[in-house]
Write a structure and sequence with these properties.
Blueprint (H helix, E strand, L loop, with lengths): L11 E3 L6 E3 L3 E4 L4 H6 L11 E4 L4 E2 L4 E3 L7 E3 L1 E7 L15 E9 L1 E2 H9 L5 H4 L5 E3 L3 E2 H4 L6 E6 L2 E7 L7 H9 L9 E3 L7 E2 L5 E6 L3 E8 L3
Parallel strand pairs: 3-15, 5-11, 6-18
Antiparallel strand pairs: 1-2, 3-4, 7-10, 7-16, 8-9, 8-15, 9-11, 9-12, 13-14, 13-17, 17-18
Length: 231
């Protein structure tokens, strides 16, 4: 087979404690998966079926990198998240066996152009421009589940310039990791290299140039990002 253009490089994220990298195939994101965040977004936190949106694989950014304030927004937000890395593909995965498909876990920050997201939501349009822009998925080193197990509780926090903004527990997830994997796999076949960002707690808010944003999850360490001036 001859390609008419060079194949794009495979996006990757770091693997904790090694020089290896985890290849990223797709990024799925769960919307409004903490009750308090659903309320702050003006929505009912009742346990309705989960819903998903996506980010491009090449939106990934390593911890420690600088992220430029993105174009076409005046309300650029942080969102602390637990990230699940899929190592074994499958479809129609049973909840009881869902964790067998997990390679590991990481700390993430789902950067959001909130004004664009809300405008699209209010008009019944897709969220792509609010969520799926360049360098919008900060993802820290992935910790292998074989080494740390499967975290289902523990503090998830985010601070901006040392001031705590988000402070919750993974136990507060409306839909658990096994439930998310099972539900998603009944609609879309999962594959090795897929990442799932599992939702953010309450306390989302704006970032401006010069801000340093630190996200931490108990047992997974922390990630840090600096926001620079608009490109």
């Amino acid at each position: 087979m001859t390609l008419v253009l060079p194949a794009p490089p495979t996006p990757t994220v770091a693997v904790h404690g090694t020089d290896s990298r985890f290849p990223v195939r797709r990024i799925f994101c769960v919307g409004r998966n903490y009750a308090a965040h659903a309320r702050e977004m003006g929505k009912d936190p009742d346990r309705e079926p989960p819903f998903f949106f996506s980010k491009p694989a090449d939106a990934v950014v390593d911890s420690g990198e600088t992220v430029a304030y993105p174009p076409q927004t005046e309300n650029f937000h942080y969102e602390a998240e637990l990230v699940v890395a899929i190592g074994k593909g499958g479809h129609d995965i049973a909840e009881a066996s869902a964790l067998e498909h997990v390679w590991g876990y990481a700390v993430g920050n789902d950067l959001t152009r909130r004004d664009l997201q809300l405008a699209a939501r209010d008009q019944g349009r897709p969220w792509d421009f609010g969520k799926s822009f360049d360098r919008s998925a900060i993802i820290g080193p992935i910790h292998a589940a074989s080494a740390i197990g499967h975290p289902d509780k523990g503090a998830i926090r985010l601070a901006v310039n040392g001031t705590l903004k988000q402070d919750a527990d993974l136990a507060d997830l409306i839909w658990s990791v096994p439930e998310i994997i099972s539900y998603l796999s009944h609609s879309i076949a999962l594959a090795p290299g897929d990442l799932i960002m599992t939702g953010t707690p309450a306390g989302v808010g704006p970032l401006v140039p010069g801000d340093v944003c630190v996200v931490s999850i108990e047992g997974l360490g922390e990630i840090s990002s600096t926001i620079s001036e608009r490109r």
